[in-house]
Each structure stands twice: as structure tokens, then as C-alpha cells.
Specification:
With 330 residues, the protein is α/β, with parallel strands linked by helices. 30% of the residues lie in helices and 26% in strands.
Length: 330
């Protein structure tokens, strides 16, 4: 396997100044792993944008090939679960952070990180979903495990026009929920309604410091924003409701009180997509294959080539990307 392939490499000099370059690599330069995957499609997540721009300390090993999601075909395997020709996908596991990631023609990975590509999805479909759709599905499953059903009342989705928010709206609406979509982009109202949102609210309603308890507005929530937004979502959650927290677009802080928890019995459900056990991943992808309408995938996703990854990463951090971006690596 002496062929070369293109990769994006993030490096850092002695003064900790970061640079991003497109390089030619060989398989010998990849990190350890027991499965080689020809990368056919990947995507640009908010996290990938943070890694490439250096706006947050996502990368924890230098140099690094970024890209936390990929789909493709196994070309070499010494792992018992996989053989040449298998179609697989990967989300998380520190890939693109501590282990060389998806923005390369070839990825060398650990077999236990991979899940089979559901027969319904092409690699492009799987990356239109990506960590964003998979995280949204983990959030929906967590709300269901907490006993919440659409007859309990509305569900609020924050960061609604982003990747996680877009999928959360579509998945919840498909199961019969009345979805309240919170966004700072008033121009996206038609898009959000097309995904299934019943109401649109301005994120300014939730983004500023609020009261320990507010009026009970929703039974459940999916929050990709954090900070004051999550605090206000919790403060307005109905008695014995629950909120799934899966993102930090506004900030990592959570300036809340114990009031929603001890006066209304509200639950805060943490969603970790990066290290989620394989059983949860298989459940999430099975439900995605069952629940996601084809038209939702085409509405949420737009496509780019490898050469546009770096510019798109900058745009996503600036809040200029709607929905999902799929990278065709072919």
C-alpha cells in the first residue's frame, strides 16, 4: 500500500501558533489501528470548525488530521468484526482530536470504534446525519427513557437551525411532538417549519440571565447551546419534565439554581456522543434509519468537495452554516 492520499494536517510551532495545511501522506504515516477505511464521505461539524480555526482546544495531540465523522469501505482489517469490502461509519472516539481523523483519503482506526453502515443509507446519507443527527437521536432516546411522550406537552429545541437542532426538530416531529424551535436566525423560520417545527421563538428570549424559575412552557427540551439558554430552558420546564444537554454553542457555563430540580422535579440528561457505548450507537442508527424521511436529509444537507473543508470550517464557527455540510471525498 504505497499510494499517497491528500489530508488536512493541523500543526503547531514552538510558540503554539497553529497552522493548517493540505499535505500528501502515505499509509505508513497513519497512527495505529486494526482497520483501514477508504474515506468516501465526511462532514464539517461545529467541533471540526473549532479544531481548524483553533477557537477552542479540541485538538489534544499534534500534529492532527481533523474530522470526527466518516463513512467508507474497509480496505484492510485484522479485527474479527470487519473484513475488506464492509461499509462502515464512525462518530467520535477522539478521532480528529487525539487520533488521526476523517479529513484524509485513508483512515486507520480501531475496529471497536466502527458500526455498520445501515443498508438504507449511502456514505453521503450517513454523513448528512453525522455526529449532529446521531447526537440528536441520542437526545430523543434519552427523553424517551425518562418517560417523556408527546402527550405531556411541547418540546423546545435550542440552536434550532444548526445541525443537531435541525435533526432534533425532524425526529421529534416525526414522533408526534409539538416542537418549539429557538433560533437567532429569523430568516430560517420557513426552513424550521419545513422540518416540523410548530412554533419559532427568538433565542433572545432565552439567551440573557433569567429567573431561577419561569412559567412552565414545555415538558422537554433538547439543548445544544448551554450557558444562560440552558438555564432558562430548565427554569421553564414543566413539573417532572427533562432536558437533554448536548452542546455548548453559547458557552460551557451553566448559571442556574437548584430550583427547577427540587421544586419541579426536572431532570437534566447529559448526552455524550463521543464515547457512547456501541449498543447505544447501534440503537441510535437503527432509529435514524427507521425515522428519518428522505426529504429531511435532502433539506438539511448541502455538499462540498475536499478543497472547501477549511473555508467551511471557518464559516460554521461564524454561524454562517445552516443544517449539515457533507464532504464528498471521492
Amino acid at each position: 500500500m504505497g499510494e499517497t492520499f491528500k489530508a488536512i494536517l493541523i500543526s503547531r510551532d514552538e510558540s503554539r501558533k497553529q497552522s493548517v495545511d493540505v499535505v500528501e501522506m502515505t499509509p505508513d504515516e497513519l497512527m495505529d489501528g486494526d482497520v483501514d477505511v477508504r474515506v468516501e464521505a465526511t462532514t464539517v461539524n461545529y467541533k471540526d470548525g473549532l479544531a481548524i480555526t483553533g477557537k477552542a482546544p479540541v485538538v489534544r495531540r499534534w500534529p492532527m488530521i481533523p474530522g470526527v465523522d466518516l463513512a467508507g469501505t474497509v480496505v484492510r482489517s485484522t479485527h474479527a468484526d470487519w473484513k475488506e469490502g464492509d461499509r462502515v461509519l464512525l462518530n467520535g472516539w477522539g478521532v480528529g482530536e487525539t487520533h488521526y481523523g476523517a479529513y484524509a483519503g485513508l483512515a486507520r482506526l480501531k475496529g471497536e470504534w466502527l458500526v455498520p453502515l445501515p443498508p438504507r443509507f449511502s456514505p453521503r446519507d450517513a454523513m448528512a446525519i453525522g455526529t449532529a443527527g446521531y447526537t440528536a437521536m441520542l437526545s430523543v432516546l434519552a427523553l424517551e427513557r425518562a418517560g417523556l411522550t408527546p402527550d405531556r406537552g411541547p418540546v423546545v429545541v435550542t440552536g434550532a437551525a444548526g445541525g443537531v437542532g435541525s435533526f432534533a426538530i425532524a425526529l421529534l416531529a416525526r414522533r408526534g411532538w409539538h416542537v418549539v424551535a429557538s433560533t437567532g436566525r429569523a430568516g430560517e423560520a420557513d426552513y424550521l417549519k419545513s422540518l416540523g417545527a410548530a412554533e419559532i421563538i427568538d433565542r433572545a428570549e432565552l439567551a440573557e440571565p433569567g429567573k431561577p424559575l419561569g412559567k412552565e412552557r414545555w415538558a422537554a427540551g433538547v439543548d445544544a447551546v448551554g450557558s444562560h439558554t440552558l438555564a432558562n430552558v430548565l427554569a421553564s420546564t414543566q413539573y417532572h419534565g427533562a432536558v437533554a444537554a448536548c452542546g455548548l454553542a453559547q458557552g460551557m457555563d451553566l448559571p442556574t439554581t437548584v430550583a427547577p430540580f427540587i421544586l419541579r422535579g426536572v431532570s437534566l440528561l447529559g448526552i455524550d456522543s463521543v464515547m457512547a457505548p456501541k449498543a447505544q450507537r447501534l440503537d441510535a442508527w437503527a432509529r435514524l434509519a427507521e425515522d428519518l424521511p428522505d426529504e429531511t436529509l435532502s433539506a438539511i444537507a448541502s455538499g462540498i468537495g475536499f478543497d472547501a473543508i477549511i473555508d467551511t470550517a471557518r464559516a460554521i464557527v461564524d454561524g454562517r452554516i445552516r443544517g449539515r455540510v457533507v464532504v464528498d471525498m471521492q
